[in-house]
Amino acid sequence: MARLIHVEAGVGAQQVYGLGTVVETARLRRSLSSYFLRPRPAREVRSYAVGTHDENFVPVMRDDDELGPISGPSLTEVACAEVGRGAARVKDDAVQTLHPIVEGAMSVVEAVGGDSGATLTVSVLDPQDPDHLFYSVPCAVGRDGVDPDHRGTWRTPEIEKGLDCCRAALRSVLSGSAKP
Q1: Which residues of 86-125 are buried (b: 16+ CB within 10 A; e: fewer)?
Q2: Radius of gyration of the CA atoms of the chain, in A
Q3: Which tens digits make up the pLDDT trace of 26-39?
Q4: Which helix (H) or strand (E) holds 163?
Q5: Is there a contact between 29 and 48 (Cβ–Cβ < 8 Å)?
Q6: Which of 79, 16, 89, 22 is nearest to 51 (CA)?
Q7: CA distances from 142 to 13, 18, 75, 114, 139 (A)
Q8: Contact 140/118 with Cβ under 8 angstroms?
Q9: Distance between CA 94 and CA 107 in Å, rounded?
Q10: Pairing state of beta strands 118-120 and 139-142?
């Protein structure tokens, strides 16, 4: 939707953004919050879900907090599974699972209305992309629009590889060879 408004209506990229992975980021933080050695509320966990809001999303795990030990699958796999289950629950029972979506939308509205500059993973234009792709990256959101962190320190080669998968999936949808 954001790409369509930008490309077709000619609205400036800084003024157009989508809800992106705000909800997935909240789910990721909630999942991770229980694994810290020093427990903390999910809102204090500084991790992000970037890319696209589907199974291709990329978890960005900040390592400035000490995580507790887990056995079995890696923490990334556990967190990704939790985020994925949340998305499936919305598809299965949208009436009872709309709360996280409404809460995510309200966090964007509050950031804009309060001109807070809150860091949210909204969907924005990748200025380097020739296809004018929009996908989620951490952005400062306020009354004047967004300030995306496209070249931030959160980008590692592994995360870039995951974002390449997200961009490929978006290109596939744009070309009509995949379902949106």
Answers
A1: bbeeeeeeeeebeebeeebeebbeebbeeeeeebbbbbbb
A2: 16
A3: 888 888 887 777 77
A4: helix 157-175
A5: no
A6: 22
A7: 14, 14, 32, 7, 10
A8: yes
A9: 20
A10: antiparallel
The DSSP element (H or E) to which 43 belongs, if any, is none
Q: Comparing C-alpha atoms, which of 178, 173, 118 is closest to residue 1? A: 173
Cβ–Cβ < 8 Å for 22, 121: yes
39 DSSP 8-state letter:
-
Question: CA nearest 60: which of 90, 29, 30?
Answer: 29
Per-residue pLDDT tens digits for 70-114:
555 677 777 777 777 766 666 666 555 566 778 888 899 999 999
Q: Which domains does the chain have, with CATH numbers?
A: 2-173 (3.90.110.10)
Closest CA to 54 of 86, 26, 76, 77: 86
* One-letter amino acid for residue 75 of the chain: L
